[in-house]
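Try it yourself: sequence plus 4'-deoxy-4'-aminopyridoxal-5'-phosphate, in.
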Amino acid sequence: DIIETFNFSPGPSCLPKEVLLKAQEDTLNWNGSGISVMEMSHRSKEFIEIMQNAENDFRELMEIPEEFEILMLPAGGSMQFSAVPMNLLTKNKKANYLVFGSWGKSAINHAKRYADDITEVVDPDSIGNTIPDFSTWKIDPEAKYFHYCDNETIYGIEINDFPFEELKDQLLVCDMSSNICSRKVDWSKYGLVYAATQKNIGPAGVCMVIIRKDLIEEPMTITPDVASYKKYADAPYRCFNTPCTWSIYVCGLNLAIMKEKGIEAIEEEALLKSGMIYKVIDESDGFYINSIDKKYRSRLNVVFNIKDDKELEAKFVEDAAKNGLISVKGHKSVGGLRASIYNSMPVRGVEKLAEFMKKFQEENQ
Ligand code: PMP
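Structure, out:
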């Protein structure tokens, strides 16, 4: 028997079957062009149409106002850890960084190379299970921007009560790599949002950069052109150099589906799916443990341990895979287990994981 596989990988992650089938169907002959998208010039009218449609669907799905530019940049989320300071800290070289997980930490470490003065909003060495209360935050009111990561993929922490009102005088820059397109965004609160595509949108290689147009200016002189927002924004169709054409095309296939579904439905489903796994954890009498402050539990990355038993965790990974539930191992830096439940994970897959977890507990406690 072939068992259906559900892929809980943190990214690159699962894509809807219909996207994969469409990509397969188009592989040799896209829309009667006689060639594959992989082989198309990025300057051809065919590819420009593909890219434009992807952009339009993303804009519509996320209700991104016209005053924002959408750039589809190379080199994933990590490039933005440097690109953000290189593009924004040209005159005022001060920035605030809120760090409550490893990606935020990576962002601040990169930014330190370009900034004169970085304020660590909370102690980045105390990151772990919660986000310190806003009243304890240290904020430089003179800083050019305030950077944070909305969902910490490795630790499974998502900020669900960001103090927008208290920070209304700050220019907000946010890494939404692991929770973009999973809930509505109030764009009036942000200057720049970036998100790598390989979790909630499509394949790896692209990073969506949504930037308010008035913030696009000449970056630091050391900035490589491929990291300069201005270079892209000024180029025809925002293609300064060869973009990740095939990835953008597959992102476009998925964005069209997400747009049809609508952001409210996606948001509801994200809560439903993660809730199913948290319920199993909370009703397991301490067999499964998730020690994240409940109000900051991630809807996308559910991290957990099995008692304090590394051997049992290894068995869990192995048995889960035999049941078609793959990539449930935690990140190597923290160990344990993690189910990444992005937009393309069907409810059915999560139901199967929940059932498996209950059965595994019965058999191994
Ligand atoms: N930010 C977050 C929140 C992430 O989860 C990741 C990757 N897992 C990154 C940034 C880095 O993205 P990339 O690997 O595309 O550089």
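One thing you can check immediately is this: The mean pLDDT is 97.
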